[in-house]
Specification:
heterodimer; A: alpha/beta; five-stranded parallel beta sheet; two-stranded antiparallel ribbon
């Protein structure tokens, strides 16, 4: 597998150093560039050689979510991870809605950080029981909103989770890992990961849809514009 | 009424001339008209108080009327006499005068209270006869006499006769009509409101009054004279008794024994004279009337004494009418006794009419007042109900808020306790170690901090409100349990996927979390495990069961299982769960959860 060039965005200097060290130790990582502010991050992102983005959410002069969005719009395939202290679901879900692929825990063992990154680069989709629960809830709310908005002209077709996807999310919520889910459902692990990635994409789309709908409802956009 | 006045006359007069039985004797007139001129008619009638006490006499009573010289005939010589006699008397007029007189109206009789006009002519406008004799006959042996005589020129006399007749008869007719209408009205009101006896008694009074006024209208009574007479008298007594009952009911006096006794009195008053022999009939009438008047006085006293019971408008109306009635009665009394001529006629019918109208007004006012009261009560009631509902709603809101606040503060307490017991303690320990053993291995320090961070993360995740079922809780805890187990060099086997997502009470979830943590700690600490299996399943037979199994050395029964196991058992008991402990091939803990009530319902206390 080719090695990747990574961009790490973190404003706290010690954490930055620690993560840098850990990530440099990963076999799949070739270089690690760093940025400590929003402006710096944007500058660095302009460099086309960047393959992977790992970013914090709270930056002194901006939000990490914007960086994620920009990176995603620049490159649809780029793996994006968000760094979080506790892995609280809201932050992670927001990040995923903006295009992130997963998260890293700041305080985790260096080994687990490294393995999480490797897994991501290998095609796994990181997910936790809490995230799975919240994703399910988010889609449930979206569906009930869609029912409410049935009278209004829809901008895009509302996104639903397929039955398989819901099943997988439920099993994740019970604490099963991808391999175990694959065993229970008698499918390949790779398929499970694909499903999870699809779920994330749907979440991103759904969030975009939701945002547009909200904007339209509040009269910020005229009809026909996107 | 004439009987009433007669009674008054009886009571008040002294020295009245008694009619003599001797037909030839001349009864001196005790009153004389005023001076009249030919074109005038006397404004003040002659009042001749007397009474016939002898019912059997067929002799006429003779009155001598002295005609004043100032009275002149009409230029064509005509002059007239207007004679008003009392009840049940046939008046035959005979004049012994220089000229013949003949009555203008048919036979010489006239019926009570219908004034009779007698006309005559003189040859010229010479002076009228100085004396006129009027003989009054009561062939049936009844009682009565002349009430008034007017003398004057023919035209004046005719006019006066017409006027008098109009007044007396018309007023009687009006009074009767009003009385009948009132009786009907009040009776229908009483039928609608049977509890209010006042309406009934008043309608009785009005009916009896109407009955009594028949004697104005019925010229030839259908029954014998005495029966008719008794009926009329009984009607008067009944009228008075009914009015008394009415005042009692109006002032809300309890019926008690008064009402039946009054009714008995009324019946006696009606029937007694009938059974009396002829010579005592009149006296019995008078006694009954005296009794009725006394009862009437009693009624008036009741009305005055309890006038507070009446509503203000009724009170003033009734009192005013009563005053007027008293004035009217006094006037008629004066007339009868001859102390003053007063107005030309008896005012008592008008007085009675006024009283009737007053009573009707009082009753109607009463009715309206009651209706208004009802409306007011309904409005008050509605307002009260609204008030109470609002108060209830407010109380409900308040209780709701109090309950929410309580829940919130309980949660806060729990969180602060967890943080205190967990993270805060760990940080303090770390600080202590750093300060006392600075040379400790940084990697060990790092892992210590990591442990604190993990604990904090788990605390935060455990209070996530989206964790509502046992399956979700287990899913949340897995990473932490796995980390601990892997640290000890063992493997975690996770068999949870068959558990369903049904919601569980938060206190149950919390207890399970603590038990699970304790069990994991024990398994890791006692060492020697290579696999920790956590299995959760639900079945019809056993309900939900959580199995924590390791393959280590097991507990040394003596050593230290005491506290940990006791803690777990007490936590299980608190939520009504069963904790089973087996130790062969390692330790197996079975936690059987109680049959799930719906989440957060009060749990039955287990002693």
């Amino acid at each position: 597998m080719s090695t990747k060039n990574l961009l790490l965005v973190e404003d706290e200097v010690h954490t930055l150093r620690m993560l840098c060290r850990v990530l440099m130790g990963c076999p799949s990582v070739a270089t690690v560039q760093t940025a400590a502010t929003y402006e710096q991050a944007l500058l660095r992102l302009a460099d086309p050689s960047i393959d992977v983005l790992v970013t914090d959410l709270q930056l002194p002069d901006g939000s990490g979510l914007d960086i994620i969005r920009q990176a995603r719009s620049r490159d649809q395939q780029m793996p994006i991870l968000v760094i979080t202290v506790l892995g609280t679901e809201r932050a992670v879900l927001d990040a995923i809605s903006h295009g992130a692929d997963g998260y890293l825990l700041k305080g985790a063992e260096p080994q687990s950080i490294a393995s999480a990154l490797e897994a991501l680069l290998a095609g796994e989709a990181p997910i936790s029981p809490a995230i799975a629960r919240h994703v399910l809830m988010r889609f449930r709310n979206l569906e009930s909103d869609a029912v409410d908005a049935a009278a209004a002209p829809s901008i895009e077709p509302t996104t639903h989770l397929s039955k398989r996807e819901t099943e997988i999310l439920s099993l994740v919520g019970k604490g099963l890992k991808s391999a175990e889910i694959a065993e229970v459902l008698e499918i390949a692990t790779h398929t499970v990961n694909t499903h999870i990635r699809n779920i994330y994409r749907k979440l991103e789309v759904a969030s975009r849809t939701e945002a547009v709908y909200e904007a339209r409802r509040m009269g910020l956009l005229g009809n026909g514009e996107i | 009424m004439s009987t009433l006045i007669r009674l008054l006359a009886l009571v008040s007069l002294t020295g009245a001339c008694q009619p003599q039985r001797d037909a030839t004797a001349v009864v001196p007139a005790t009153a004389v008209h005023q001076m009249c001129s030919a074109t005038e008619v006397c404004a003040h009638p002659v009042t001749l108080p007397h009474r016939a006490s002898d019912a059997a006499s067929a002799q006429p009573m003779r009155y001598r009327i002295t005609v004043p010289r100032s009275v002149r005939a009409d230029p064509d010589g005509g002059w007239g006499l207007v004679v008003l006699a009392e009840m049940s008397v046939e008046a035959r007029i005979r004049t012994e005068a220089l000229l013949n007189l003949s009555p203008s109206s048919g036979p010489h009789s006239n019926h009570c209270n219908h004034p009779a006009l007698f006309v005559a002519r003189t040859a010229s406008s010479a002076a009228l006869p100085t004396e006129v004799f009027v003989d009054v006959f009561s062939p049936a042996g009844g009682h009565g006499g002349l009430r008034s005589v007017h003398v004057g020129g023919l035209r004046a006399a005719t006019a006066h006769h017409r006027r008098l007749r109009g007044l007396m008869v018309t007023s009687a007719e009006i009074a009767t009509a009003v009385a009948l209408l009132s009786a009907l009205l009040m009776f229908s009101v009483w039928v609608a409101k049977p509890k209010d006896r006042a309406y009934l008694y008043f309608s009785m009074a009005c009916a009896l009054f109407a009955l009594n006024s028949l004697h104005y209208h019925v010229l030839h009574p259908p029954m014998s004279y005495w029966a008719w007479d008794s009926l009329m008298n009984a009607a008067v007594d009944g009228f008075i008794v009914s009015l008394v009952l009415f005042t009692r009911a109006l002032t809300r006096r309890p019926p008690g024994r008064i009402v039946p006794s009054l009714l008995v009195y009324g019946a006696v008053a009606a029937l007694l004279p009938l059974v009396m022999p002829a010579q005592l009939k009149t006296m019995s009438h008078d006694i009954m009337h005296a009794g009725s008047l006394a009862i009437g006085a009693f009624g008036v006293v009741t009305l005055v004494k309890h006038r507070g019971q009446l509503s203000a408008p009724s009170r003033s109306v009734l009192v005013g009418a009563g005053v007027v009635f008293c004035v009217v009665g006094a006037h008629d009394l004066l007339r009868l006794t001859g102390l003053s001529p007063g107005l030309g006629l008896s005012l008592v019918p008008f007085g009675v009419l006024l009283m009737v109208i007053a009573c009707v007004t009082a009753l109607v006012g009463d009715l309206v007042r009651v209706l208004k009261l009802e409306q007011g009560l309904t409005a008050t009631l509605e307002a009260r109900v609204r008030e109470k509902t609002e108060a209830l709603q407010q109380t409900h809101q308040h209780l709701l808020k109090v309950s929410q606040d309580k829940t919130l503060s309980e949660e806060r307490e729990r969180i602060s306790r967890e943080l205190h017991d967990g993270t805060a303690g760990q940080l303090v320990t770390l600080l202590a170690v750093l300060e006392t053993e600075p040379q400790r291995d940084p990697a060990a320090m790092a892992s210590f901090v990591r442990e604190a961070l993990d604990d904090l993360r788990m605390t935060i995740q455990s209070i996530d409100p989206t964790v509502a079922s046992l399956a979700e809780l287990l899913g949340t805890l897995r990473p932490f349990i796995e980390a601990r187990v892997q640290q000890a060099g063992a493997e975690l086997r996770w068999r949870v996927h068959t558990l369903d997502d049904s919601p569980t009470a938060s206190d149950v979830l919390h207890a399970v979390q603590r038990i699970l943590q304790e069990a994991t700690t024990n398994a890791v600490r006692h060492g020697g495990i290579s696999t920790l299996t956590i299995e959760a399943r639900s079945s019809q037979a056993t309900g939900v069961e959580l199995v924590i199994q390791d393959d280590g050395h097991g507990f040394d029964a003596q050593a230290s299982p005491g506290r940990g196991l006791r803690n777990m058992k007490s936590r299980a008991e608190q939520i009504g769960a069963q904790l089973l402990f087996e130790t062969h091939n390692g330790v197996t803990l079975r936690l059987r959860l109680p049959d799930a009530p719906t989440p957060d319902q009060p749990r039955p206390q287990e002693t």
